[in-house]
Please model this.
Amino acid sequence: GGGITRAVSLGEARLVGDDWEAGLFMDFLMLGGLFLIGMYHLGIFLMRRKERSALHFGAFCLLMGLRGMLVDQRILSTRLPGVPFETLFSMDVLTIFLTVPVFLLYVFALFPEESPPPRMRAAVLTPGLLFSLFVLVTPARVFHHALDWFNPVTLASIVLALWIVVRAALRRRDGAAVFIVGLGAIVLTVINDILFTLYILQTAHIASFGFLFFTLSQAWLLSRRFNRAFERAETLSRELERANALLESRVAERTTELEEEKRHLLSSERRFRDLVDLLPVGVYEADGNMEITY
Model:
């Protein structure tokens, strides 16, 4: 619930400053990528509301970008020193609790046929939402204990995501292999962060970099899917144009045939009338009821 969370760096001011600036540069690089990718995919969703995967992926990127501003070099607290620690800590914890359900929503949207049924989906999404609500209604001295309680939820969510993606890979779904590679980076870095939070490892919070690698791989995956969708749309458009041209050609041919048949019938009728007019006797035509029709 506070205090020193990593080793104290000792050394010359210049060396310590260089190390700080290097970390700051990496954080800004990571955050810039996350925010740009997130906003780009949210823009795609606004233009194509059916692309739910773009919405969830964009929200996931923005959450991870916000988390990157709250950990390691703590850019947000440095730039906004007047913001209370408890507020920043609440935001930090919320990015953890909200990222898990948003990530699962993205997996469900990406591989819907391999995902559990709707009621089970709601059940696995509920813990993250309840933990987030717990953060909003309790002070930091209370909700910070929830971090340890949430670790099993995070691990269970990762297992569920792996189960879905492996099933998708076995069924040769598009993008499943790329997703597994990116998810592997997340699994390794999240496990590192959990062990670092429990003071088992003296490393650093690196999950943000794992998520950055994941987001780059997913951005490539989604762009490839969108490109294939556009290619299919263009192919269907060309096929429709060819079908319309063929239909117009057939309509024109049939119209010509009908006009020719009409001319032939009119010509036959004229010959018949001329023949009847030249006969020296009367000619009539009757139907089956002996009613005269001509």
User: Anything to note?
Assistant: The mean pLDDT is 80. DSSP finds nine helices and no strands in the chain.
